[in-house]
Amino acid sequence: MNVKRVYDEASDGDGQRVLVDRLWPRGLTKEKARVDVWLKEVAPSTELRRWYHAGGEWDEFSARYLAELEANTGAVARLREIAEQGPVTLLYGIKDEERNHALLLRAFLGGSDA
Q1: Does 46 reside within a domain?
Q2: Do the domain assignments include residue 113?
Q3: Is the model's pLDDT at 31 over the cut of 80?
Q4: Residue among 16, 30, 26 at smallest CA distance from 82
Q5: What's the Cα-to-Cα distance from 31 to each of 34, 61, 74, 102, rounded to whole Å?
């Protein structure tokens, strides 16, 4: 399972491109984004996202987000079903390529360490 910024160029190897943000990426058209599925439900809750962007700590954010995923069985199951169909690229909008929820989500699904 790949992880990529939604602003990066799409490639043939991306497979299903799944946007895992609650908000549509600023300034990006649907054509340019080439999103196949927008799965808002697996993104961090609005409250958690706001808390983190207001200065929350990464480790605490990670723990809270993983707890949200544990409780969000329906959305996680839908993403697993998509992944069973072939290659998947999780798309996110945040600028930080080393600390973002898509990496945590991939690790949660067993794709790689965050």
Answers
A1: yes
A2: no
A3: yes
A4: 16
A5: 5, 32, 28, 22
